[in-house]
Amino acid sequence: MDNKPQNAIVIAAFGTTYDSTLASLLDIKSSMQTRYPNTEVRLAFTSNFIRKKWHKRATDKTYIAEHQNVPATLYNVKNVLGTLADLQDLGFSNIVVQPTHLTHGEEYMDTKAIVDALADIETIKPKFKPFKRLALGRPLLGTWGVKYPYHQDIHSLAIALKDDVAQAKLQNRALVYMGHGNEHLSTGLYKEFEIEMNKMYPQVKTFVGLVEGFPDLNNIVMQIESQHVTSIMLRPLMIVAGDHANNDMAGDEKDSWKTVLTTLGINVNTVLEGLGEKPAVQAIFIQHANDAANDLGIQLN
Ligand SMILES: C[C@@]1(CC(=O)O)c2cc3[nH]c(cc4nc(cc5[nH]c(cc(n2)[C@H]1CCC(=O)O)[C@@](C)(CC(=O)O)[C@@H]5CCC(=O)O)C(CC(=O)O)=C4CCC(=O)O)c(CCC(=O)O)c3CC(=O)O
Ligand SMILES: [Co+2]
């Protein structure tokens, strides 16, 4: 028996251009690798814009010299299609794609479209099928279906965020999360998550708002004012604390969440930590990858 890995996992992140928050993604990758030491684990970025930016940096000697913490492989990070092609070419026929998206939104659906299409490829001789088993894990807050109820995924994330609640409680602040959201689909899932947090942790008021879609910042402002909240801890409900967290949430521009809420007289403590840095969140992605693998009879090891 040789030890060459038979199986592979592709971690499909939206990505980020912020090296300050790369650990959020690299930690998810390394904890997946630690859990499955005999599996090839690779990172892919679904955002075209973000991949292009890294590819451009690959030729920028000054940037590279000043960012020793950036792994060399990041400069040619590929999308899911390119990463799967590489793995297929190397002979991996059982592959799990585990997205790090929060919801079954646009980015996840596009990833699913690619995975479904590749998994459907038939060849004259079945043994030449490019992918024997190609599985797709569900997003952090779950997806449709009865086997893995999304309520359970919402519940699991709420458990994973218990340290945020404890920290807010210690500082006597309400907890406000800024998620990404989407204009094209209902984002009521985030509202359900907010309700779950308040049910699980009644000792701290939690509010969830989104950059795009409902509930938005105005909605949070209304609730905060009607509940006479005067002091908050503001955190991204995103895997990375990147562009949205640094600018839309914590930036100094007049329309950032920090500025808007501070102007209303609220004491705001911003925390630039991505969910991906939390071991409890990494564990959820490991679980989701494992569930998807099991469903197709892939034994990750
Ligand atoms: C389709 C698109 C439509 C649109 O929004 O315009 C879209 C959609 C979504 N993005 C999501 C997530 C994130 N978006 C960012 C950042 C950026 N997003 C941008 C564009 C686009 N985003 C359009 C596609 C363009 C393309 O493919 O290239 C950038 C390039 C420009 C800009 O926004 O102006 C800006 C780069 C800024 C920079 O670094 O320079 C980060 C990273 C970060 O913040 O650092 C995260 C991860 C947060 C996390 O880590 O959790 C989600 C939630 C997914 C989920 O988790 O469910 C959805 C919605 C969904 O999938 O439903
Ligand atoms: Co975006």
UniProtKB/TrEMBL annotation:
Under catalytic activity, the entry for this protein gives: Co-sirohydrochlorin + 2 H(+) = sirohydrochlorin + Co(2+)
Entry keyword Lyase: yes
Keyword list (alphabetical) reads: Cobalt, Lyase, Metal-binding
The residues listed in the UniProt record as binding Co(2+), with positions renumbered to this chain, are H180, E212, H244
Which Enzyme Commission number(s) are listed? 4.99.1.3
The record's Gene Ontology biological-process terms are: anaerobic cobalamin biosynthetic process
Question: Any idea which residues are catalytic in this one?
Answer: H180 (proton acceptor)
**Which CDD domains has this protein been placed in?**
CbiK_C
What are the recorded GO MF terms, alphabetically? metal ion binding; sirohydrochlorin cobaltochelatase activity
> Superkingdom, according to UniProt?
Bacteria
Q: Where are the transmembrane segments?
A: none
Q: Which Pfam families match?
A: CbiK (PF06180)
**UniProt record similarity statement:** Belongs to the CbiK family.
As for what it does, the entry says: Cobalt chelatase responsible for the insertion of cobalt during anaerobic cobalamin biosynthesis. Can catalyze the insertion of Co(2+) into either sirohydrochlorin or precorrin-2.
Protein's name according to its UniProt entry: Sirohydrochlorin cobaltochelatase
